[in-house]
Amino acid sequence: MASKTPTVGIHSSKEAIYLSLQEGYDFVGVRLSTDALKQRVESLEPFESVQEFFDSEIAYHPEEYVNKVVGLTSEWIELDSNDALIAQRSEEILMKEVSFASYCGLASVLCNGPKYADNITQYARSCSTILNSSYNITLVLQFPIEYGQEDLFESWKMWNIVRTSCKYNPRLQVALELPPSCSPPIELVNRWYAEPIGMISLSCMAFVPNPTGYPVLSRKLRAIFSLYLRLNPKVFLRDSNVPDKIGESPDYSIYMKHLFDTQPPAPLVEEFAGGYKDYLQIPLQPLSHNLENITYEIFERDPVKYAQYEQAIFAALNDRDANSVTRIAVVGAGRGPLVDCALRAAISSARTVDMIALEKNPNAFAMLLLRNRQDWAGKVTLVFGDMREWNPDYKIDILVSELLGSMADNELSPECLDGVQRVLNPITGISIPSSYASYITPIMSPKLWSEVRNMNDASAFARQYVVLMNSVDFLAPNDEFRFQPLWSFHHPNDETKLFSKNQHNRRNAAVRFQATNPGVLHGFAGYFEATLYKNISLSTLPTTMEEKSPDMFSWFPIYIPIEKPMYVPENSQLQLHLWRMTDGARVWFEWSANTYLVLRNGSHIHLSSTDIHNASGRGFSYLMN
């Protein structure tokens, strides 16, 4: 999965396309029609219509660089005009310009955004009509990041109505306009980040001179702009023909390319897995499927995780009698990375160990045989089989596993460790990890939701997905309540003796979140924290990851979708119900969501609810055999 890079373009004319490309621009925006078309439309009688363009009305014809051209529709078009005739004429002309752009071979057209909030549905209907036509072209709609101070989210609300009315059409994108004086709050900046931004629109008048007189962006505008560059958008410079702009045309492309090249380095996780951003993966079925070699290889690339494991084993060995022999078993050993950790910990702690590695995957077991001969000098006892059926005639002092899923328990770590804990020394036996907890938060992500919908699978919204989240906005405020705990598991677990059919591993939770700003609920993001041994931990939780396991990338968050997006008004509450169910042969998750409006007196009005997703595990379940 190759990653894209940002590109920069400028408003130009048909005659200047080649010159603009020579000046370093990656694309150009060119008007499709001239002012002569407007003059003719204004002279038409109500019963007349434009059947075809006259030669004087056409500003662009297909040419050599058509793949580097974005069509600019007429600025005078008002799809949301209060005058019914103007709105009708505007839709007719826009349809013809889109038709002409499609004929020319253009991939996208840039259109003016709506002007009147009261008529936004009329604007949305016209966009829907064009998108549902036979023209396979992308509509890029220009929206300012904010519309003033009365309602900072007004522009986003208008876009949301258009996007929803057009059924999340993948050929509908935003050209986000960053005005020179914009100073939006971070909540609004993050909100737009989650939207399908195909273009960032900047006026050349937004640039200020640096000490040498060259055009640059102000520090505040550059900070906002730099965040959106992570989405790899097209950057479109308008007003290039304004006489009092700073510098010459090539200066802008040079500066923008400089900005592209000098962005801070991406987080380590993106360096290793950047191609997986917003790419949905179905969680593993570790008990019913055998993993491929490439899967193990990806797991083993994470140095942070194994450093934490090695530190935990070292600490556990140090707490034991220096003269004792410690029996360590790595269950689900894969290709042996945890065996390496344990052997290194034994050397650094100066402890004697009896090392055992168990694996049920016959292909991975073949690698363990090779490694035992080549790397471990035959000192590791290898056991082939399912850990739940292992019955050695000795007890284990330290049981080590890496069975956690993206939400800790979702890949059946509790079931696996319950099945093998009988081999642990009942008095001094240690499990690494010793416990783990799951966390959840509501998210808005048109991208992830659309990816699920586009699977065209009846069970798509009954599954959870592992995903490196990028185009996501958190709906809960950035405080201590943004990520809330669901449940936890501890090992060894004495409850296994009290229940049958795995009933002790059932869980349920109901958590509430405050939503200060308006948004759309597309589902929930799941994370975990795990205690390996004493104070040595792993975490994917954004609030504690840097403290407990910085730069760890073995686990992406989990996405729990809802089938029908729910609008969330400002100052409302979201409630999630989540159940971990089991019948002894399977484990599955069910979930539902509710929204409530919170009144000034503290009472709640119910707004909407979802269905119970994945009821009885009919859509997706984890098999225990």
UniProtKB/TrEMBL annotation:
Alphabetized SUPFAM superfamilies for the sequence: S-adenosyl-L-methionine-dependent methyltransferases (SSF53335)
Tree of life domain: Eukaryota
UniProt site (Critical for specifying symmetric addition of methyl groups): 299
InterPro entries attached to this UniProt entry: Arg_MeTrfase, Arg_MeTrfase_PRMT5, PRMT5, PRMT5_C, PRMT5_TIM, SAM-dependent_MTases_sf
Keywords: Methyltransferase, S-adenosyl-L-methionine, Transferase
Domain PRMT5 oligomerisation: 435-620
Residues that coordinate or bind S-adenosyl-L-methionine: 296, 305-306, 359, 386-387
Pfam families (UniProt xref): PRMT5, PRMT5_C, PRMT5_TIM
Record-annotated active site: 402 (proton donor/acceptor), 411 (proton donor/acceptor)
GO BP terms in the entry: methylation; regulation of DNA-templated transcription
GO molecular function: protein-arginine N-methyltransferase activity
Domain PRMT5 arginine-N-methyltransferase, first and last residues per copy: 270-432
PRMT5 TIM barrel domain sequence ranges: 24-261
Gene Ontology CC entries for this record: cytosol; nucleus
UniProt record similarity statement: Belongs to the class I-like SAM-binding methyltransferase superfamily.
Protein name: Protein arginine N-methyltransferase
Organism of derivation: Schizosaccharomyces osmophilus
Name of the encoding gene: skb1
